[in-house]
Amino acid sequence: MEYYMTLAACKLYKGEKECPYKRNDKRIVFWNYEKWACKADLKTTRADVREIEEDAKRFGIYDDINYIANINDLDNGFLFILLGRYLHWSGFYTKESLKEDFFKWIDIYVKC
User: Highest taxon of the source (predicted)?
Assistant: First the structure.
């Protein structure tokens, strides 16, 4: 079975069974998403990412996500997965607030 993300592409998840970060550490969320991306079936995840990419185009942040991935040597597909999680959990947003707030959140991940 192919997986969406490899351990080599992860910043935080290194194959541990238990999260190594303490409670209230911002890295916990990103560690869990990386773990999920390493264990998620590629066929299912690819379709989800394509849908999120369309959302990113509609919100005008598609190119920004690819740019951030490139300059930080991150997996751009994983950033689209994070966008999907952000859209799911963030509630109400405008096009402008989404761009500002999502990239603030991604900046936390980049600095981990």
Answer: Bacteria
